Amino acid sequence: MEAGVAEACLSELFLVQIFKFYAHLFNSSRKGKFFQPMQFVPDTNFLPDGTDMLGNCDNAGFLLVKLSGHDVGPLVYENSGKLALMCSQTATFQSTLFALVVRESEVSLASLFPNRLLLGLGVDLQECPYPIRNKLSRSTAYPVLSNSILTILCDFRTRKYRVMTIPGLIVLIDGPKVTIDIPNNRLNDIMSVMRTSNDHVLALGASSMYSPDHSSSCLACVQNPTDFSYRTEVLQNHKQHGSGGGATCAAFVILNGSLKTGDRYRVKSSTVEDGVMVELLPETIDRLKTCIKARQDFNIENESRSDDSEEEDRFISQSVSIRWTGDDQEFNVGIRSCVDFRSLQGVIGYNVNKSEKKTKNFVLRWNQVFCFRSAISGSEVAGFAELIGSTASQALLPHLQVLRAANQTKFAIRANIHREDVGYSAGSNGEPLPNACLDSLDSYLIPLLDNSSSKLSADDDPVEFEMVFAILEIHHSWKYCEE
Length: 483
Hints:
Elements: H1 12-30, E1 39-42, E2 59-65, H2 83-86, H3 88-91, E3 98-103, H4 107-112, H5 114-125, H6 150-153, E4 165-166, E5 170-174, E6 177-183, H7 187-195, E7 201-206, E8 217-223, E9 230-236, E10 248-249, E11 252-256, E12 267-272, E13 275-280, H8 282-293, E14 298-301, E15 319-325, E16 349-351, E17 356-358, E18 362-373, H9 378-396, H10 400-405, E19 410-417, E20 422-428, E21 431-432, H11 435-453, E22 463-473
Parallel strand pairs: 4-7, 6-15, 8-10, 11-13
Antiparallel strand pairs: 1-2, 2-3, 5-6, 5-10, 7-11, 8-9, 12-13, 14-15, 16-18, 17-18, 18-22, 19-20, 19-22, 20-21
Helix pairs in contact: 9-11
């Protein structure tokens, strides 16, 4: 947080409110309500009504964001040794969420299309694509919402619809060329948007507003505080240089079948605020949607003219390409396995709610499941995991004190199930669990894994998933406040 001269030391009130925010995140997470990037958290969720958040009645909450090409060198602290691998998500901020203060008039944008708000803050503080620190004295980025294309794409009144942001989608503008990169594993997200869109209009939000690997700048929309009109600015990153060349990232793309049959152009593209509008023929956008459904690349460009024209037509060389790229793996970034520090980035997982067993002094909580590979359906994997996780919890319940004494309060069990071979591995901080725990797991899990393998055919690929557990110590003298 960047404070003014008079606020060089945060007041006790500020610190209390910040800790209440942390407590809200913790209490919500322990109930299975987890927080994601681009999620807005209203101050009414963690402060009493009528309280001025951070001393300003205009502050309305926090918007959670992740890193996007930011330089965090000054924030990194030294951490050495093998345990540093388990702490890497904190030491290098790879999976850290940053909370940005949101003004009252910015709540609708933060809730429906946070890309616009973040890029506006980036212009205000001259950070590409957006800041990760707060400047409490900043002015409101967007005082009013009017005369913006977002008022058509988003329902700011009842919040029933909005521009859907597709994870991993990138919109690049390089001169007259517009390129839309869609990850292979995001077809279902695109199909969901297409099912709820008009026949000849498709609006997609980009999750990557800037990346040194793809671009050197991004579009930002700035509102004039006098007449509330909008203008487009190009926000450059002068601190970091990658391989993106001169391309510019856009926050969204609108594919619109508004061109008339017989028009001399097959495609027109233009910058609209912090996004790009692509105009196509109605039959062309139908063909584009067919290519998307088949996960096929699509390309269209205007035909070259053979005659010389005194007036250069800016649409003549324009083109639009849709490319299917590798899977989006920008999730679980920086997270590693407790068993052997294996990276969990890009590994699909889910959180387990209300699954815990208690003794007099401890609570054993089963938190997460990560599926490395499986040829069976997700529901079948979940069924295997539920049975094995519950059985493993029962096996380890008498040994919680042993695990606590070995400082192995967070551990994981990785199961491998195949018709011809079964097995498991269990560890914490890269070390195996104590022998007493492994012996108990052998007695409980080996027969269960053998039985589970009989449900697979010999031709099925192995099923491999990992379950994460945590041990919480109960102090009977402590009074824990529920939200």
